[in-house]
Amino acid sequence: MSRLSSTSHRRLEWLGISRWQLRSAQEAIPASSGPVEGRDVAGATASADTPSSGQALSIRLASGAGDWLLVQQAPWRGDHAALMDDIRACLGTERCRFGQWARDSAAGEGPAELNQRGVRHILSFGPPPSPASWPGLIVAPALDELAGSAQARQDLWRLLAPHWPG
């Protein structure tokens, strides 16, 4: 019996992920003892031990609370609201907050400050403005690309599947 509600099934179908594909994707993802860190949707992994050349890179926090920080370079304008609602619903709406990449550490918060605020996962829509190997960073395509590509959404969902509540 499925743990997903009918609303969740409809959302996944809208995103181009059938129930069969979802089950297959979950089975294909190896069990992990911790969060997926420093991965992008292409499967490349950034080493957490490698010093980042973006030492001054930081994130300006916007609205929300929780252990997931959804971030992009542009200010949040409400673009692709249905897609964002689907992503938040899968992660847990109460677990998501929003932010914007900043190039100056004085304009935002770095990994240590974010960790103190309870942020454990950072989902970046588009690459950070400079290279970063922050703990918990998952780099996804920009929202425009995700909205226009079922394959990009499927790849993102495979990365996020281990983090779904329930």
Describe this structure in words.
- This protein is an alpha/beta fold and 166 residues long.
- The protein has a domain at 35-148.
- The protein has helices at 6-14, 19-28, 81-91, 111-116, 143-148, 150-160, and strands at 39-40, 58-64, 68-72, 96-102, 121-125, 137-140.
- Strands 1-6-5-3-4-2 form a six-stranded mixed beta sheet, covered by helices on one side.
- It is globular and about 45 Å long.
- The model is unreliable at 20-54 (pLDDT under 50).
Short summary:
By secondary structure, the chain is α/β, with parallel strands linked by helices. It has helices at residues 6-14, 19-28, 81-91, 111-116, 143-148, 150-160; strands at 39-40, 58-64, 68-72, 96-102, 121-125, 137-140.
Which helices and strands, and how do they pair?
Layout: H1 6-14, H2 19-28, E1 39-40, E2 58-64, E3 68-72, H3 81-91, E4 96-102, H4 111-116, E5 121-125, E6 137-140, H5 143-148, H6 150-160
Parallel strand pairs: 1-6, 3-4, 3-5, 5-6
Antiparallel strand pairs: 2-4
Q: What are the main properties of this structure?
A:
alpha/beta, 32% helix, 18% strand, globular
